[in-house]
Amino acid sequence: MDLKTKHLLDIASLSKEEIEDILNLAENLKEILYRPIPKVPTLRGKLIIYLFYEPSTRTRFSFEKAAKTLSADTLTFTGKGTSIEKGETLLDTIKNLEAIGADLFVIRHPVAGAPHFVAKHSKVSIVNAGDGTHEHPTQALLDLLTVREKLGTLSGLKIAIVGDIKHSRVAHSDILAFQKMGSTVYVSGPAQLLPDLKEEDYYKITKGGFKICYKLEEAIKEADVVIALRIQKERHGEALVPSFLEYHEFFGLKPEHLELIKEKAILMHPGPINWGVELAYEMEKYPFQVILDQVENGVAVRMAILLKLLTGEKNYENLN
Amino acid sequence: MRILIKKGRIIDPSQNLDFIGDVLIEDGKIIGVENSIEIQEEVEIIEAKNFWVLPGLVDIHVHLREPGEEWKEDIETGTKAALYGGVLRVACMPNTKPPNDSPEVTKYILEKASQKGYVTVYPVACITKKQEGKEVAEFGRLKKAGAVAVSDDGKWVQNSEVMRRALLYAKNFDLAVISHCEDMNLSKGGQINEGYFSAKLGLKGIPASAETIAVIRDLILAKETKKPVHLAHLSTKEVVSFLKWAKEEGISFTAETCPHYFTLTEKEVENYNTLAKVNPPLRTEEDVEIIKKALKEGLIDVIASDHAPHSPLEKEIEFEYASPGMIGLQTLLPLSLNLVREGYLTPLTLLEKLVLNPSKVLGIDPPSLKKGAPAEIVIVDPEEEYTLTEDILQSKSKNTPFLNKKLKGRVKKVILKGKVFDLTFS
User: What is B56-362's CATH superfamily?
Assistant: First the structure.
């Protein structure tokens, strides 16, 4: 099944079927990563350009590994040391890189909608690798893949997301993604970092599928999945929580919380982690924390996305 | 030279007139307004059957961008857009570069307007020096140079003591005080209305409270200083109940809104459409409805365009980096006519808000169709439907969400300074 559009901009515009299709493909592709020589020639001759206007470790290397596994060529453009410092606009940069021969752009940008803006003007596919406080669709897809892998289903689950929901593009994508797959999402954190009540109308895409909790315990009680998030201090501009010490005491996930969540509930985090703030360091030892599985699944999901956008349905050949 | 306008619907709020008749003009002056005037010789006849014959509109909220941002607009192009919109007097906001906080800038604007301007320009000067909100500007010298009002438009005077002082000092010089009501701590970093779309687009929302709180403070200061305050471009339903309260309290104030706040909703920003980025932001359907009711009930006195030209350099970029604002001089009348079509206003009450009340705010004699008045006349076909193309727009900038949309109601001719401008070309 081909995607409806030639871009991957957000979870909001994906259907449940499209998401399932991507997850199935990713699951199949994952096997390639375990081969003695983890490389297939499928995307040979395709040029992927990364436009990273914001720092990234996991996402960037994950896309890079995905592209290299599929034998695509890649070039990286970062906000520093290129013409952005000479005042070139995003649109001009895109047009120039298209002229150089890009087949697909992966964009991370500090402001919401930058990939959507580029998509309106670009001839080639755009993949959103995180835009401001808007969405981070590939992260949500790898979260879904991880949960499906560990729990065997994506429907009927209670998903708790704890932390700076308001400024987290991961949370925004996850809230939509898990609901689309039939689960319920509970969010908790300091109220000033939660969506406000008017915004709730948008996040609640299924009946009763989304709930804002001002008490952490309410959100994580009987949860199947707990996702901890980092405080996006760099997006606040000023102190929105009184101190990390206080944050950890009232909103950090600690061993005592393991009593509340379901037995064998999984613990996730999109990274980077601030141990001792959103997660007590003891939580690393929790047997069902799957943080590195998420990272590994990120490669598979991004391979699936690149493959879908750069080849047609019939062309998933050369995978051997 | 004599001009006779025949059989038009004459609507003049300054005399409370609304009838079908003729207007005779000689040497740029109105010399007759009658049911029928018969002259055969030495007269240019303008047939106005089915058209409206109006005094020129007065738009008290316009950004002409000169001096300093002439790539967006200048006094010549801005006033030409005004002419084509039937707006024969404009008050221009002081957030130019440099800002109009000195007699020199005020004089520069007036001089440019007298050389290049198509319509009359009234400079609005700053409330505070450099619009910094700290020190009250030289109101006396600004008034003497030709300023009619003061405003820090684009910014609210955050410091209540400074605003109080400005209201008091403006009394010495009979300067109107126009407030851009926005608590800038609440709106900081905000891009669009807070709610469904701010969540959907991941853009920081501007809560209604940013406007409401500012309005309430200014009303309280107006009460205490007994100096009327003019509240610019109101957009939220929340403020309307406080306007009602202020009326009951006997506070003297005037309130303004713009066509986009009674025509468009936040939905326009969908897909990160920067043409719909404006400050205050577009709100919800409910807000639109209540703003229209407030116009009907007379709680909002003035309709102004907040004409804010921006070039593609400021608009064809990432949403967060794009400048807020839309042009509006040529859409002011067609969009306002919808209020008559929808039954919120009569033609006369509409023109009160487009001609009479804005003149009162500035303390100027309103354009009028009275015998003896200078002819500042606009002839409008209220029924003409057309697509708003770039060619029609006279402004240097084309940043309007109404671009390539259908409009109804078009200015056909303007009579100004003894000249007849034929504005229809197709």
Answer: Metal-dependent hydrolases (3.20.20.140)
